[in-house]
Design a protein that fits this description.
The structure is a homotrimer of 341-residue chains. Chain A is of the alpha/beta class. The first copy, chain A, is built from five helices and 39 strands. Chains in contact: A-B, A-C, B-C. Chains A, B, C: GO terms for molecular function: N-acyltransferase activity; UDP-3-O-[(3R)-3-hydroxyacyl]-glucosamine N-acyltransferase activity.
């Protein structure tokens, strides 16, 4: 329970209305009730604001007076402010230090570290203060993890990989598996190339559930600071990702591709190998990137969904676009010839 | 071993031919031999039926007399009948109650529950009668799972998620991981929004291997009754899926999208966030849905595969479709002008 | 540390220059220094070769004299030779036999086998000599794994599946989960069809992190010898894959599809069910295959990425391609009529 004026004193913003109102939770406009603080980030939802039972609301400057009967916190970026309040009301769970008797630990760990049941920690592992290793995790020999990082249950980190401070790794993620590297014999048989690089991950990185990041073949795979990686993502060997880039679910990034800083990669997008993507590039959902992108901006390649019958009718032409273009050229030529005759 | 007439007495259908024949297994027409019951669901495979060595066959009404030398069970829907026979011959494995000494359990469980080695069960977990928790599973604090549900090895269910009765969750699935929710600071840095909703799953739901379902941000992610979800699927926060909807492998569904009942989503399809999909919608494989769909029906957006050289020739025009359309317009105008001159 | 002439004596190739130089590591041209052996596989990187500090270099015949100041190994296929040297310098880690006290083993295993902490091995499991089972693995009843295979941490192999010799399975992989097989009742409810086939995997197969391979419905799912499968791949029930086929990350292969030998399937490609793909077929990244392919060759269906505004302008026509084709036809007809009038 917290007074709205105390919240503003701590996090900033302009308080309009009764600051003594108590809030204890954040909630959507539709679900909010007594004790709930809600927010309006998109003016499109002004109607929901009016019908909301929220005790207090975070608003942008333009919506300042959209509600006059309840306390408001007026800020430049309501969604960002909401994020800060949500963090204040929902702090990360406390790490309870200690090693569970059903864990297997072959390294010396700081007393502040928590290791849950079934976790297996190899030799020469270095964990920072307050690190927590969830149940069933497998942490390979020589791994280093910075202070404050939380590895949730059932994560694998292969030998010699490095994670920075304050990272959060979700269940099922695999960091440091072998890259897909083979040479081919004349018979067609594949000769495996040992993958001896590492994965090196910066500070404040979040890695989603069942995401996989391969170790480098010879050099390292490198993930910058503040990078956010959603679920079910595949990152190939020797990929490099710049700071603050965010990657949505189901994306695949093939080997040796370098992605700049502050990029946003939409869900199910793919980027083939050996490309360079500039800083501040946005790739739309479902887009396969097959060439390097050198200019910031939004890039797209996906198809308009249609009722199946329309799709059959329209898309059958895709097999013959070149013939269609030839027919246009022929028509132009015939008209040209007439005009000149 | 079971007589065909006993089978028909139990499951229905019309028996034609000798009911005393014994069957003990279901098999495809090609593989079937003595003691095997097979089925013909698609009249296209009539040839295989004739050459099959099956002891008895399940047939549709139209194929009633396609075989006259062997006992037949004639039914409306041979595939559905086959499914019922297959279940009769292959019942789910018995749950052997008991908690393995290498499991870690912090809640009070019914005596009928099975917990295998390496499983870790948190506090305040409520399991129904006959629930089985596979080896290496991690069940978070406050999780509730309905009677008869089977959680196969190496599944993670995060804190406070709810599963109904008779669910089947395959290995590697992760239920309740954080949704991908961040607000952006002016520097480009991301501020994590705590994900405090739950995942709420109905009865008789199957969840495939390595599938991930994120918990809601503020409200819940909700999966209806009888929903079938294949492997490698990503379901974002606050998604809602209606009863009996089936989703094939590798699909991604982005946050806050609501999908109706009895939909079928093809493999590798994607649905972006904040959309509404009506009941009884079929989305074809590989289709990215970028707009809400309000009418039942089949929807498609994928490309015809071609030999690479043809693809290069045809698809190069896609970058210039607008110019092509302009040239058609110009031709029409020139002819128009001539006609009117 | 190894002399270059000793390396050539062991692995072949033509030595040019001082054979007494010592090498102990493989490295990229850019990273190589003293003691490093590098390679030039693509003549495009000749510039990097000249500036490289590598102690010795593997070269193709055409680049034989591109460097004259350092020892060279001249071979037909520098990348393949590099792979062999890399394997020589980086042998697979020794398996240290023994069963960890925190493992749970219900079968009799050869003394040469290693089973790490938290692994759970069912009844009637048959492991070949020198097999290693990583931490947290779950190996179901009746599984058989050939000699020399390494199962890395947190892999699940369901009951009765077979793996050949010298396989390598990465963390998070799931082998033998149920195929996605259901019959539909008139109400829309799904009746599960028990999946009673197995997964049968050949020798020298590598399976990537978090990849899933479903067991067959009635018959088996079959993976040939020397097949290489990357991360995050889904292989449906009753799929068959021929020898030496390689499949890149995030691919989905739907049920009952048969893929030939020596195929290469690009990342994020998809193949729908019940198709046949010939030997030596290459499918480009991101391509959805919806028809069988009977001829070897390269097949493609993906879209050119464009700046978003260009994409909007060009791709809006895709919804109306049929109308565009009609307009071309109408123009042709009008010119035809004129010519004949």
């Amino acid at each position: 329970m917290m007074r709205v004026d105390a919240l503003v004193a701590q996090l900033g913003g302009e308080l309009v209305g009764d600051g003594s109102v108590l809030v204890r939770r954040v909630a959507t406009l539709d679900q909010a009730g007594e004790g709930d603080l809600s927010f309006l980030a998109n003016p499109k939802y002004l109607g929901r604001l009016k019908s909301s039972a929220a005790a207090a609301v975070i608003l942008g400057v333009r919506s300042r007076d959209a509600l006059t009967d309840r306390p408001r916190i007026v800020v430049d970026d309501p969604y960002l402010y909401f994020a800060r309040v949500a963090r204040l009301f929902n702090p990360a769970p406390m790490v309870v230090p200690g090693v569970h008797p059903l864990a297997s630990v072959a390294s010396t760990l700081p007393a502040s570290v928590a290791v849950d049941a079934g976790a297996v920690i190899g030799k020469d592992v270095v964990l920072g203060e307050g690190v927590s290793i969830g149940a069933g995790c497998c942490i390979g020999d020589g791994v280093q993890i910075g202070a404050g990082s939380r590895i949730l249950p059932r994560v694998t980190i292969y030998a010699n990989c490095l994670l920075g401070r304050d990272c959060l790794v979700h269940s099922g993620a695999v960091i440091g598996s072998d890259g897909f590297g083979f040479a081919r014999e004349k018979t067609g048989a594949w000769v495996k190339i040992p993958q001896v690089g590492r994965v090196v991950i910066g500070d404040d990185v979040e890695i989603g559930a069942n995401t996989t990041i391969d170790r480098g073949a010879l050099d390292d795979t490198v993930i910058g600071n503040g990078v956010k990686i959603d679920n079910q993502i595949q990152i190939g060997h020797n990929v490099r990702i710049g700071d603050y880039t965010a990657i949505a679910g189901c994306v695949g990034i093939a080997g040796s591709t370098h992605i700049g800083a502050r990029c946003m990669i939409g869900g199910q997008a793919g980027i083939i190998g050996h490309l360079t993507i500039a800083d501040d590039v946005v790739v739309s959902a479902g887009t396969l990137v097959t060439k390097s992108i050198h200019q910031r901006g939004v890039y797209t390649a996906n198809l308009p969904v249609q009722p199946h019958a329309d799709w059959v009718r329209n898309f059958s032409h895709l097999r013959h676009l070149d013939a269609l273009a030839d027919r246009i050229r022929a028509l132009e030529k015939r008209l040209e010839e007439r005009d000149s005759s």
